[in-house]
Design goal:
Blueprint: H1 5-35, H2 42-61, H3 74-98, H4 106-135, E1 142-147, H5 151-160, E2 168-174, E3 188-190, H6 195-201, E4 206-209, H7 216-228, E5 232-235, E6 248-252, E7 255-259, H8 268-304, E8 310-316, E9 322-328, H9 350-358, H10 365-371, E10 375-377, H11 384-393, E11 406-408, H12 410-413, H13 423-439, H14 442-458
Parallel strand pairs: 1-2, 1-4, 2-3, 4-5, 10-11
Antiparallel strand pairs: 6-7, 8-9
Length: 464
């Protein structure tokens, strides 16, 4: 809605200035709690600049961090704010290591983060309440009418009737073909011929057009009428007859495009956040964990059976492109590598059974993450033989390959891992993989990683 674009830009500037002021207050309060004075030493003053700069960068990744209006539900606003703080903490921790700022008090840092989160969180709640109060006042009302009274019109009416939307006052439907049996019929103010006179008499601000777009003359006439009388003309197309799910609107330059499913990872900023995290997380594992466990695991594998330490196998990745997937070898050397492992599989070694149970056999795949063939979280890459088979019997199987495969995934932490003797078990995996694609968020990845570690600790009955 272009009408609110200036309002949103102004909000961003005000809230960014407020955030920096609250961060400064948090630093002073934390220093007071820790050292008994609000005066910051030189190193901590520099750290304040870094802290605020990283927050500015993180908020730039997510335009919705500064949204206090009603176009987003409060749960989504809270989730965006939490995501921003998690990403901020991750980037800041990396900066502390890179710039050698280890001398900063960890307790002071904890105080700063807690106070910053509370102050910024409280300021958002306060601003949302003020925004809600303003949008419900008479001076904030934007009077609008709807052309049409079908499902698209009713959905629009219900959406603007929500408590959290900006102040908009519904004035009525106008439709030549209104259904007299509809529960909304009493809201129909007249025919389409009555629309223009009604708008002039009642100082209407906006007209929403929800009828099929096959009457070009009517659309052109209403467009000219709105231009001449300083009204906003909005077209709300109804796709319910051809698509039975949510649509997502994207713009390529000035060309509108519709997608029939949510694809968060199609957005460049989301892919950038995920890739930066993948690189940092995999580097941490390779540098901190791999040097410790590699000699031990390698020795145990060699002591039990002859053969290589690592197992390499072609797996289908994003868009079915094959890549070499690395694992610790968990089986005796055999010629049946395209055969899925089963319970009590005689090919699996004793150390291999332990590695599979604890997911430690997947550690070399962090090199795949660095190479860009895999992500830390995503649909698990299946065997090539499984791709050939299931793509023919499961309609949505190939959809899981729209995104980069992962070391761990939503299906695995939801209990769907191990052998897939029956087709419905693979169907459930695909179902959860598609849910992951359509609902991805940075916090969702964090949740999956946490559940993966938890499952490693407690053990999984289907891991073999």
């Amino acid at each position: 809605m272009n009408k609110y674009q200036h309002y949103h830009s102004f909000n961003r500037i005000i809230l960014l200035i407020l955030d920096v002021a609250l961060i400064a207050l948090s630093f002073n309060l934390s220093n007071l709690f820790r050292y008994g004075t609000i005066e910051l030493d030189h190193q901590y003053s520099i750290f304040f600049v870094l802290f605020a700069l990283v927050w500015w960068i993180v908020s730039g990744f997510s335009n919705f961090v500064f949204r206090i209006d009603g176009f987003l539900p409060i749960g989504k606003k809270l989730a965006n704010l939490i995501n921003a703080f998690v990403l901020h903490a991750f980037i800041l921790a990396s900066c502390i290591v890179i710039f050698n700022l280890e001398e900063i008090s960890r307790l002071l840092l904890l105080y700063t983060y807690l106070s910053t989160a509370m102050l910024i969180g409280f300021s958002r709640l306060l601003f949302m309440q003020l925004s809600r109060y303003f949008t419900k006042s008479d001076m904030a009302y934007s009077r609008f009418v709807v052309v049409g009274s079908g499902q698209a019109a009713i959905n629009l009416y219900n959406t603007f009737g929500n408590d959290e939307n900006p102040g908009a006052k519904f004035m009525g439907f106008f439709d030549d073909e209104a259904d007299v049996n509809s529960p909304y019929y009493s809201l129909v103010k007249g025919s389409e011929a009555d629309l223009q006179e009604y708008c002039l008499q009642h100082s209407i601000d906006e007209i929403y057009y929800t009828k099929p777009l096959n009457n070009k003359e009517q659309v052109d006439e209403l467009t000219a009428f709105c231009d001449d009388n300083f009204l906003y003309f909005r077209i709300v197309p109804d796709f319910s007859a051809i698509v039975q799910k949510d649509l997502n609107l994207y713009f390529y330059h000035n060309i509108p495009m519709l997608s029939v499913r949510k694809e968060p990872l199609e957005q460049v900023t989301n892919r950038a956040v995920k890739r930066v995290f993948d690189i940092a997380f995999s580097m941490a594992v390779i540098l901190l964990i791999f040097p410790v466990v590699l000699p031990i695991i390698a020795l145990l594998i060699r002591l039990e059976s002859k053969g290589p330490i690592f197992f390499k196998q072609l797996r289908p990745g994003k868009k079915n492109r094959l890549f070499v997937c690395y694992k610790f070898r968990t089986m005796f050397v055999n010629n049946q590598t395209e055969l899925q492992a089963t319970k009590n599989d005689p090919r699996i070694t004793r150390i291999g059974r332990f590695l599979r149970k604890t997911n430690l056999d997947e550690l070399p795949q962090f090199f795949n993450v660095l190479l860009g063939d895999m992500s830390v979280v995503g649909p698990r890459p299946n065997l090539v033989s499984q791709l050939d088979h299931y793509s023919k019997v499961i309609s949505k199987y190939n959809m899981r390959h729209f995104v980069t495969p992962g070391i761990t995934g939503y299906a695995q932490v939801s209990g769907y891992r191990g052998e897939t003797k029956e087709v419905h078990l693979m169907e459930k995996r695909v179902e959860y993989d598609v849910k992951y694609m359509e609902n991805w968020s940075f916090m969702m990845d964090m949740k999956i990683i946490f559940l993966t570690v938890w499952n490693m600790i407690k053990g999984e009955k289907n891991a073999y």
